[in-house]
Amino acid sequence: MAEKSHQEGYPTKAFGWAARDQSGVLSPFNFSRRATGEKDVAFKVLFCGVCHTDLHMIKNEWGISSYPVVPGHEIMGQVTAVGSKVEKFKVGDKVGVGYMVGSCHSCDSCHNDLENYCPDMILTSGGKYHDGTTTYGGFSDIMVADEHYAVRIPENLPLDSGAPLLCAGITVYSPLRFYGLDKPGMHVGVVGLGGLGHVAVKFAKAMGLKVTVISTSLKKKEEALEHLGAHSFLVSRDPDQMQAAIGTMDGIIDTVSAAHPLFPLIGLLKTQGKLVLVGAPPKPLELPVFPLIMGRKIVGGSSIGGMKETQEMIDFAAENNITADVEVIPMDYVNTAFERLAKADVRYRFVIDVGNTLKI
Asked: What transmembrane ranges does the database entry give (predicted)?
């Protein structure tokens, strides 16, 4: 099917901010959303997180972007309309939409509540929807989504600081659960203290784990221990500290998306320990096999989570008062925010106050 321009033929007028080319500069953009189908939820966007993936997409750094790009996949809002067959939501409910808005519903992954691993998974921003249109994300006033890909938001979870949980939160929650690194008393390392890492510390602590933050920078020590409440802190460039911690961890969640050596991290693991990569370095990392063999250790990966698990994560976060540390910004600050994000100048996640600051 030929791609439709700006969702022409769709009935509902929408307004947002979009990047038009690889400069990645965003500016106001008029487009349309589809009518609310029988299984769809329509909602007013109130807040939307700013993720590093958005930066890759607006600049086409992965070579898959189709302009214009309306970014945003950490979306919180309030339901304004529901389709006739919607069961989970009613008008007025708080709702969240994360990294995906569709999948095939027929593959093994979909049948096992792992829609995030479906070969035909549809991205919330910059994906191709079932009708051939390009999906537009949450840097916009309204959204329409199949209720299957929408998450119920508990009343006590703040929408602004809760928004990043829909991407960063599930990205670290899912591997802790899947790899069995969720038993009280276990010792888990978290590599990198950014958007993903700081939330990983919070989830791990809520699961009753002993948490060590591993960073190249001593500057993060006070933040890790005093503010986030990690139990210990390792400077990965300090050979004495790393040597003293060898063989002490049941698992490690590695959130770093830059090139970095895996050998020292594997050394920190106990026998049968697990190193799980959730950051995506642009080039392949060197994997030393000998220490894996000698300790029956595992190096694995993980990407977001299925819808059932994402709902579970949001409910767990609400029960344990877990939110991201955010800097709330107006819509017209977004280009500056992306410049700062590229320099890692944010603690730890930008969230756009779409509901109050998106002006036509």
From this structure: none
| Contacts of 213 by beta carbon, 8 Å cutoff, 6+ apart | 189, 190, 193, 197, 201, 220, 224, 225, 228, 230, 232, 233, 234
Are the beta carbons of 325 and 348 closer than 8 angstroms?
A: yes
**CA atoms of 274 and 253, how far apart (whole Å):** 9
Instruction: Give the chain's end-to-end CA distance (angstroms, integer).
Output: 31
Q: Are 73 and 58 in contact (CB under 8 A)?
A: no
SS3 label, residue 230: coil
Which 3 state secondary structure label does DSSP give 265?
A: helix
Query: Token digits for 159?
Result: 């929408």
CB 211 within 8 A of CB 230: yes
% of the chain at pLDDT higher than 70: 98
Round to whole Å and give the CA distance between 87 and 89. Answer: 6
**pLDDT for residue 1:** 34
Dump strand ranges (E) for the chain: 12-19, 26-33, 40-50, 75-82, 94-97, 100-102, 122-123, 142-146, 150-152, 187-191, 210-215, 232-235, 249-254, 269-277, 298-301, 326-329, 349-352
Q: What would the two tokens of residue 101 be?
A: 């808005």
Q: Is the pLDDT of residue 25 over 50?
A: yes
Q: Spell out the SS3 assignment of 267-329.
A: HHEEEEEEEEECCCCCCCCCCCCHHHHHHCCEEEECCCCCHHHHHHHHHHHHHCCCCCCEEEE
Q: pLDDT-derived band of residue 10, with 50, 70 and 90 as boundaries?
A: confident
Give me the mean pLDDT over the 28-46 stretch: 97
Q: Which DSSP symbol is given to 183?
A: S
- Phi and psi of 25, rounded to 5°? -75, 130
Report how far residue 295's alpha carbon sits from residue 269's, in angstroms, rounded to the nearest whole number. 9
In tens, the pLDDT along 182-203 reads 999 999 999 999 999 999 999 9
> 89: number of CA atoms within 13 Å, CB side?
32
Q: Which residues contact 56 (CB under 8 A, 6 or more apart)?
A: 62
